[in-house]
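I would like you to sit down with the record closing this message with an eye to the fold:
=====
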Amino acid sequence: MDESPCRIVVLDDDPQLRNLLRRYLSEKGYTVDTAATAPELDRLLHRHVYALVILDLMLPGEDGLSVCRRLRARGEDIPIIMLTARGDEASRVSGLELGADDYLAKPFSPRELIARIQSVLRRRPSPPIPGAPRPTGGVITFGPFQLDTRNRRLVKNGERIPLTSGEYAVLEALVCHPRQPLSRERLTQSSRGRVYLPNDRSMDIQISRLRRLLEDDPSHPERIQTVWGYGYVFVPDEPVPAEPTP
């Protein structure tokens, strides 16, 4: 399965436009997936790593503005170009304020869309090397563990737990997407920057190693759970309720 750094996903409820964009963008060298609804987009985002989202504003069910707001609220920094049949300033400003990187009103020229895509991708910083420390970040706490995403460290009760680069990158991807199932394909791309191959058991071995480090009973994991036939999901510890004040 191709996990090209030029992989794009298109969310639009118009099947003709989806097919047009798939053909045109594919001819320009992009790998293109399409979705007709927000839930379909969510499933694709959980499975693959994308360079950019093309997002229609007017959608059945959850609209494009809501999708954009939700993606940004959960920390997704993937570039977004919004499409709409409405070219009014208010809609354009709303999309940009919610975190869209650019805006294109329908009808539009496919050549203009390509120019917008190239412009947005040029403005984005290069993706970090899988497993490398981040210039910015924070500490995520779960149970007795603290994951320091800036310094690339896992600590338990004040004691550092050594991890390989691959193990750290897998753990970071899972912990930063709590309760969101992530496919083996996406975890492999996030941790190694390469394509996942069928029958490759190395991801399962890394998960097994992480479970031995994180779980009270690795044979019955609670924090890193298996999503059968798909991948894995991180389930954070439930907060302990505060003791009532006498």
Observations:
- The domain at 7-123 is CATH 3.40.50.2300 (Rossmann fold).
- Residues 79 and 121 are 8 Å apart (CA to CA).
- The chain has two domains: 7-123, 139-234.
